[in-house]
Specification:
Structural class of chain A: alpha+beta
Strand content of chain A: 15-25%
Number of helices of chain A: 14
Radius of gyration of chain B: 21 Å
Bound molecules: zinc ion
Order of helices and strands of chain A: EHEEEEEEEEHEEHEEHEEHHHHHHHHHH
Largest interface: A-B, 34 and 49 residues
Order of helices and strands of chain B: HHEEHEHEHEEHEHHEHHHHEHHHEEH
Oligomer: heterodimer
Helix content of chain A: 25-40%
Shape of chain A: globular
Structural class of chain B: alpha/beta
Shape of chain B: globular
Radius of gyration of chain A: 26 Å
Largest sheet of chain B: 11 strands, mixed
């Protein structure tokens, strides 16, 4: 089974890719000009900020960035395409041959990263159609993977990694995510086009995998074709269309030039996933806890980096985690220090305790009582079932019965209990 | 001769501007030089604009029915710079639809030659050349893709200058083939062209391909005759052209003959690139945002957008089909990619030749044809008449056409080509020529006594 993706992500530039129209207009057709509506006589002018962002992405995905990059016209007719062609890249994209490491311990190849313009938005009504050109010319980056993904959980991991890497470049993948999926269970390649949003992507992949597997089992032929995903019915349908490069008639975009990438300065990419693994090992804190902290949270990562080496990191990490979960406002230095202080003394503040710290109350006694007892109970139950500790290495879920027991007894928050359990078990492992 | 200075210095009688435009409008009924005349002529030197160059709020159609009613929301950069320099815009000039043509006949109302209406004006900047030939004080903003300035300037007996690619901003130009399109200038004298060129050239943030050129002014007093451009042409054209060569020799130019066989590849390479690029545009003229409007909203997508296509002329349809074909994946390497290679090889070869001096040839291999005769030529025969104008256009090299003789009352013209950014020296040669040769005009509308 092979899955390859073409992921389209909108870049958060202030103006569009080839004109100075804003990218954040809400009322339809208010951020438009002769260029992004394709008026005769207008000429595109590249937004260098978008090029810089695209190069940042290519770098972060470990691509080779060619010394010069250029654009082509992809010619096809559709009412949302005001010039009758899309300016995109073909032979000299901003990035080629990169990779992303995913949790399953494998690498997914990145074939290419290219910069292109978004078409306008078509809004279909019952008996008429509207076109909103605000979206026309919004910069997009298309990330094309190799068909290296071979299971649904790998797809999920891949998207999480990609999302995190892009998050640290300042790009919110969920803002406008559009994916073409290439899925082949056997030889025939089926393309599911224009799937929007993370949830639909996973649903569409699952459906299509099952559909093809069923056909294989029934010894039926899988047709090589393009399909589309219906969000409403949660299944894919054949779109009976064949688009090939033949019909796009690519030519070099003669209104633009060749752009040097050499002088473009980009920030060092951040691989939160790798950092989480390193921190977990170094500071003896659960990897999942740290992942949760830093995969999509710059502030947490900055806080960790600022304490690195100066402190015992375990209480620091726990404090960040707790404050992130329970604090009602951005934690002040005092709140942070108090929380760390409690943790260093061996207390583990709960929600009430954090709220208390925030409002400046004395909380030590409460925090100690509230959490100490629960921990004691958990430790007690583990010791009672200590023969399960061996099995725990292979199956981390063997102690999950404890969560239920504790919740029943103390009416505590399941998530908190499960975390305490995880942490205490970490202690037992060592 | 600098008619701009002469015009600005002269005392204009009361009602002068109005009278000029009235006379022009009347003559226009016969010659079809203008698609529209605005009816305003201020203090400034009059200038006209080819109908594929945008003027804010003035109908701009590139002589196509499909763009009827298109009112640009902005001025082309060259137009803006002319206005900023106090020139007076007087109207949009006729042309072959989208620039597709060599004789000016691919227009609903073809422009006529001012020397004799039975003859063609040349194309595609037909109206620009006619306007220049009939107005005493005037410069024309024209445009050339493969010879659209040289050809009509030659047939109408005016000076037609096409600068180095990138010297004048294309912002505001309705595309024919973007990598070949160049805005240029027509006038009655080379000095007027130099004046305007210096004023409006230079890098423009709205056109990525515009350049702040490193201009040279190199005249090595040598003229190169390329065998492939002077042999096998109309006998009358050939013999009178040799008369010009003798005169230039008398002006101190050394004449060198050279064979450049590769230059014959220019026509197929040019038409391949031009049509490939041209065919990417017209489908956007789909009849609902600007220009021709399809009001029948009960149709389906395909029907709705296909109906607009009926507005295209014959030559436009031919180029869309051919251009789409040469871009398609299965033949792209055979045609489009190969044509790009020919272009860069030819540029390299011509640069070598031009380092020695100017290339001189007749502008057209034929005398001015009668409308009836030109109309009965096959497309291939028409394309072949571009043999002299295509090489410099394909390679983005500056060139200028200027009259050097009159035969049976019709002008004959020659074309000079020079290396990139040596535009001024080339215009200087024409300026020198004008000191010993008086151009003839049948009309002198706006003459000041
Ligand atoms: Zn815009």
């Amino acid at each position: 089974m092979k899955i390859g993706l073409e992921v389209h992500v909108a870049l958060p530039t202030r103006s569009k890719l080839f004109c100075s129209c804003r990218t954040d207009a809400e009322e339809p057709n208010t951020a438009i000009c002769p260029i992004c509506t394709g008026m005769p006589g207008s000429k595109p002018v590249l937004n260098e900020g978008a090029l810089t962002l695209a190069v940042s992405i290519a770098n972060a995905l470990k691509c080779k960035v060619p010394a010069a990059t250029s654009f082509v016209r992809k010619v096809y007719f559709y009412p949302d395409l005001p010039k009758n062609f899309q300016i995109t890249q073909k032979d000299d994209p901003v990035g080629i041959g990169g990779e992303i490491s995913i949790e399953q311990g494998k690498k997914v190849g990145i074939r290419r990263v290219q910069l292109e313009e978004d078409p306008a938005k078509i809004i279909r009504q019952d008996d008429y159609t509207l076109i909103d050109f605000n979206r026309s010319g919004i910069p997009l980056v298309e990330i094309v993977t190799e068909p290296d993904i071979s299971a649904e959980d790998e797809l999920r991991s891949f998207m999480t990694e990609l999302k995190s890497i892009l998050y640290y470049i300042g790009i919110d993948i969920d803002k406008e995510l559009k994916v073409d999926l290439n899925i082949s269970v056997k030889d025939a390649r089926v393309e599911v086009k224009n799937v929007t949003g993370m949830k639909n992507l996973l649903d569409a992949a699952r459906y299509e995998l099952q559909r093809q597997e069923k056909l294989v089992k029934a010894k039926q032929e899988i047709v090589q074709e393009t399909r589309s995903y219906s969000e409403k019915d949660m299944h894919t349908v054949s779109s009976r269309e064949k688009e090939s490069d033949e019909e796009y008639g690519f030519i070099f975009e003669p209104d633009l030039t060749v752009y040097r990438t050499k002088g473009i300065k980009t920030a060092e990419p951040v691989y939160a996933s790798r950092l989480a693994r390193e921190y977990a090992k170094k500071y003896g804190v659960g990897e999942s806890t740290i992942r949760e902290l830093i995969m999509f949270n710059k502030e947490s990562l900055e806080m960790i980096e600022s304490y690195k080496g100066k402190h015992d990191m375990k209480p620091i990490l726990n404090a960040i985690s707790l404050l992130q979960r329970y604090a009602t406002a951005k934690p002040t230095a005092a709140t942070f220090e108090k929380t760390v202080g409690l943790l260093e003394k061996g207390f583990y503040p709960d929600k009430e305790a954090i709220l208390g710290i925030e409002s400046g109350k004395k909380v030590e006694a409460h925090a100690a009582a509230g959490t100490g007892e629960i921990d004691k109970e958990i430790k007690h139950l583990i010791k009672e079932n200590s023969k399960l500790l061996k099995e725990y290495e292979k199956n981390p879920k063997v102690f999950n019965f404890i969560i239920g027991a504790v919740i029943k007894k103390y009416k505590s928050n399941p998530r908190e209990v499960s975390e305490r359990l995880e942490r205490i078990l970490e202690g037992f492992k060592r | 001769m600098n008619s701009i200075r002469e015009f600005l210095d002269a005392e204009k009688p009361e009602g002068y501007g109005k009278r000029v435009l009235e006379e022009l409008s009347k003559l226009n009924e016969k010659l079809n030089a203008f698609n529209n005349i605005t009816g305003r002529l201020g203090e400034g030197m009059p200038f006209s604009v080819k109908d594929n160059i945008c003027v804010k709020g003035v109908e701009t159609t590139a002589s196509s029915r499909i763009l009827k009613g298109y009112m640009p929301a902005f001025n082309a950069t060259v137009v803006q710079r002319m206005l900023d320099n106090k020139f007076s815009f007087i109207g949009k000039t006729n042309m072959d639809e989208f620039g597709f043509g060599s004789f000016g006949l691919n227009s609903q109302k073809p422009a006529r030659n001012p020397f004799d209406e039975n003859y063609v004006a040349g194309g595609s900047s037909s109206g620009a050349a006619v306007a220049t030939s009939v107005l005493k004080y005037h410069v024309a903003m024209a445009e050339s893709t493969g010879g659209s300035i040289s050809a009509p300037a030659a047939f109408c007996g005016v000076v037609g200058f096409t600068p180095t690619y990138g010297a004048l901003s294309r912002h505001g130009l309705i595309d024919y083939a973007n990598s070949l399109d160049k805005i240029g200038i027509m006038a009655r004298h080379a000095a007027d062209i130099r004046y305007v060129f210096e004023m409006i050239r230079g890098q423009d943030p709205n056109d990525t391909t515009s350049i702040e050129g490193k201009y040279a002014s190199e005249d090595r007093k040598r003229i190169i005759l390329v065998d492939q451009l002077v042999n096998g042409i109309d006998k009358e054209v050939e013999s009178s052209f040799m008369g010009l060569v003798d005169k230039l020799e008398g002006m101190g130019y050394k004449i060198i003959r050279k064979s450049v066989p590769f230059i014959e590849k220019a026509i197929p390479a040019y038409y391949t690139i031009a049509m490939a690029e041209a065919s990417t545009h017209p489908a956007s003229y789909s009849g609902f945002k600007y220009g021709y409007k399809n009001e029948d909203f009960t149709q389906h997508y395909n029907q709705f957008f296909t109906s607009a296509r009926e507005q295209f002329g014959e030559e436009a349809k031919r180029r869309i089909v051919l251009g789409t074909f040469v871009r398609s994946a299965s033949v792209r390497d055979k045609y489009y990619s190969k044509a790009l290679k020919v272009r860069s090889l030819l540029l390299h070869e011509l640069e070598g030749v031009l380092n020695e001096g100017f290339i001189l040839s007749p502008t057209m291999p034929i005398q001015v044809p009668r409308v009836d005769d030109a109309g009965s030529l096959t497309p291939l025969e028409v394309y072949k008449t571009d043999i002299m104008t295509i090489p410099p256009n394909l390679c983005g090299l500056p060139h200028v056409s200027f009259p050097y003789a009159y035969h049976k009352g019709m002008p004959l013209a020659a074309q000079l080509v020079t290396k990139q950014w040596n535009d001024e020296a080339m215009l200087g040669l024409v300026d020198g020529w004008e000191k010993g040769f008086k151009y003839r005009f049948k009309y002198n509308i706006g003459e000041l006594r």
